[in-house]
Write a structure and sequence with these properties.
Low-confidence stretches: none
Mean pLDDT: 89
Order of helices and strands: EHEHHHEHEHHEH
CATH class: Alpha Beta
Number of domains: 1
Helix content: 55-70%
Number of helices: 8
Cofactor: Mg(2+)
Oligomer: single chain
Largest sheet: 5 strands, parallel
CATH topology: Rossmann fold
Subunit structure: Monomer.
Structural class: alpha/beta
Shape: globular
Enzyme class: transferase
CATH architecture: 3-Layer(aba) Sandwich
Strand order of the largest sheet: 2-3-1-4-5
Pathway: Metabolic intermediate biosynthesis; chorismate biosynthesis; chorismate from D-erythrose 4-phosphate and phosphoenolpyruvate: step 5/7
Main location: cytoplasm
Distance between the termini: 9 Å
Length: 172
């Protein structure tokens, strides 16, 4: 299999971490959640980093994590944060060093999933969450497509079906 390093990209709550764990298990590879990696290395939660250090500092931590999470030729599955594509340097690293799977979801799916998980996301701590989701997704869509080697529309799929589509594509 040619795809040593697999990175899942997509908007928050698109399923990157859940799909990533299942995909890594299926491929018998280590799984890393970039946000969890950042939290572990800083001792702070992502919301704490945003509130105490700001978004730019978080993006720098994200950039460092993306470039340092892999040593050598390790075959891994990585779940990125939803905003990793906002930085040109990150997009360059993703395109150069990773096989990127874009988990694409509609804004309505994202809003429903966010309501179900009950976690407040720093960039969506606003009055009109639906409009904020649409706006951020609109800004990022081009970047997700730019780095994507393969795209899965996840709105109506269960996790095993998403993983199956990715595995089928990887084996082509």
């Amino acid at each position: 299999m040619q795809h040593q390093r697999i990175a899942l990209v997509g908007f928050m709550a698109s399923g990157k971490s859940t799909v990533g764990k299942s995909l890594a298990n299926h491929l018998q590879r280590p799984f890393i959640d970039l946000d969890k990696h950042i939290e572990s290395s800083t001792g702070k939660t992502i919301p704490d980093i945003f509130s105490s250090l700001g978004e730019e500092a978080f993006r720098q931590l994200e950039r460092n994590g993306l470039t340092n999470v892999v040593r050598g030729d390790e075959s891994i599955v990585l779940a990125t944060g939803g905003g990793v594509v906002t930085q040109a340097a990150n997009r360059d690293v993703l395109k150069r060093e990773w096989t990127c799977i874009y988990l694409r979801a509609r804004p309505e799916t994202i809003r429903r999933r966010l309501q179900q998980d009950g976690v407040v996301r720093p960039l969506l701590a606003v009055d009109n969450q639906t409009e904020a989701i649409r706006s951020l997704m609109g800004l990022r869509e081009t970047w997700y497509n730019e780095v994507a080697d393969f795209t899965v529309d996840v709105d109506s799929l269960e996790i095993p079906a998403v993983v199956s589509q990715v595995i089928d594509w990887l084996n082509d």
